[in-house]
Amino acid sequence: MSKQEAFIPGPRSAELFTAAKNRIPGGVNSPVRAFRSVGGDPFFVDRAKGCRIWDVDGNERIDYVGTWGPAILGHAPEVVIDAVTEAAKQGVSFGIPNPYEVEMAELVCDWVPSVEKVRMVNSGTEATMSAIRVARGFTGRNKILKFEGCYHGHVDSLLVAAGSGALNQGTPNSAGVPAGFVAETLVVPFNDREAVEAAFAEHGDDMAGVILEPYPANAGLILPDDGFHEFLREITTRYGALLIFDEVMTGFRVAKGGVQELVGIIPDLTAMGKVIGGGLPVGAFGGRADIMDVLAPLGDVYQAGTLSGNPLAMAAGLAQLKEMERIGGYARLEQLGVQLETGVRSILNEIGEDLTFHRVGSMFCLFFTDQPVRNLQDVMRGNSEAFAGFFHYSLKNGVYFAPSAFEAGFISCAHDEVAIGNTLEVVESALKSVFRHGI
Ligand SMILES: *Cc1c(COP(=O)(O)O)cnc(C)c1O
């Protein structure tokens, strides 16, 4: 894409980015924010409310990143602000049990079908890291099977063929992770039953668990083939390995109980994050009581956290989840998702571009390929230059999609028919511009 087509941040954003780059590696605290995969420089945010986000130069945009998933009610919902404010008056952290933790644990066990006991942590990364430690401690085995394109946070042993920001680096594996750390991690393509069978045939008696994003949402949005989850449930049970759903993205997002509720599969362990924290730094992992009871102080698998179960984070998460229930949020998100999907499909039809579009509830991804997308290899066939053009055009015209072709988009309950209608107009002209149809 040529320079004049790219979004140019306003002067205040540019100034902040220059200062940031002096003191923060790459100017950002998480790599995708640097816009590397689409080119150009990021804007800095002043504030966000509902489905909109304002940058420090005064530009307003409709946001489909939603702080990468957590903002399911939209930005700065009153209920969450009130809950955090009230909690803060009582003290911002104790490091001693507080009542919010119990209420949160009860809610998670009530909503998420597989979870009988749960422990709170501070990020999704901690949740998956701890879940695989529990799986290894419980089974007394070493190997973990993961899938190409699934992202489980920046856990050393899971940064192999990982999605999200790790893909944008062009080097899926991270420097600084010794080969020995990933020696116990097996990687196979998503939706590839034969590869899973082969891994179990060779390593079945040392397989501690299989971890997956049940709907992989960090390499676009990939959907499982019919029966794939059932197959994984069956083979893990047959070999005595644990099935671990990483629902950090999908949990409390695609349904109250995550993908496991939608597909009726009961994993042994589940990692959670994002929506559960209401925008504060939270993760959680839980599952079968007998498995979770291997954790200290009951068992000999160590796991801890100074700020885990933090009262502000628990209050924010509880307020958000209860509000979703109160307003019938999941049904509303499906309505808005249908509007977006119908609109996008009719635009694609009209301009004669047969791009692949995936959606589940409020999560969606437009792949810049006309081929079906079932795994990471298919995702990588997408036209990244066309995506970058689409991204920059949208950004310049008031719609913020994630600055990477490997991320899903998120609708919130604060989006409405008008915002989605406006978005579709921008999407139409963006696509026409990218594919040079009449603009
Ligand atoms: C975001 C994400 C993580 C990591 O969570 P952090 O809070 O960023 O550490 C792990 N797994 C999945 C599926 C995610 O989407």
Can you tag this structure with a few keywords?
439 residues; alpha/beta; Aspartate Aminotransferase, domain 1; Aspartate Aminotransferase, domain 2; seven-stranded mixed beta sheet; 15 helices; 39% helix; binds pyridoxal-5'-phosphate
Instruction: Just give the CATH class of the largest domain.
Output: Alpha Beta
Cα separation of the termini: 16 Å
CATH architecture of the largest domain: 3-Layer(aba) Sandwich
Strand order of the largest sheet: 4-10-9-8-7-5-6
| Beta-strand proportion | 5-15%
What is the count of structural domains? 2
C-alpha Rg, in Å? 21 Å
> What order do the helices and strands follow?
HEEEHHEHEHHEHEHEHEEHHHEEHHEEH
Ligands bound to this protein structure: pyridoxal-5'-phosphate
| Unreliable residue runs | none
Overall geometry: globular
Mean pLDDT across the residues is 95
Largest sheet: 7 strands, mixed
Level of helix content? Answer: 25-40%
Number of strands: 14
Number of helices: 15
Return the CATH topology of the largest domain: Aspartate Aminotransferase, domain 2
